[in-house]
Amino acid sequence: MIGWFRYYFADDAVWLHYEVDDEGWVNRQVDLAGADLRPVTAASLTEVMRARDNGGADAVIAYESRFGVLAEGQGEWDDWRGLPGVEEITAEEFERIWAAARDELEKRRPAGCGN
Fold first, then answer.
1. Which of 64, 77, 78, 102 has the fewest Cβ atoms within 10 angstroms?
2. Residue 110 has what DSSP assignment?
3. Contacts of 12 by beta carbon, 8 Å cutoff, 6+ apart
4. What are the pLDDT digits (tens) for 38-48?
């Protein structure tokens, strides 16, 4: 079962949003920073793997430069439930946040494109 969670990381003033699969792997991640909830990450494991397979390390670096770095590792996401600051969210809420963050990040000029 896929689950969706968010956590406010106060040290960096960022909301971390995760979509995780039933084995605990992060499929997609959205990070929104500051009071204006500026998107800094909207990354997908599928897209990172595609970049790696089709373009190697340079393609992954370009992807991460534009969409941020996806959390690595496998976790027991069921253990997150009930922890202070961790909230389960709906698939619909995650999709809304994902779509808005991707839209904003896709508008930004990729790193290394000059002007």
1. 78
2. P
3. 33
4. 999 999 999 99
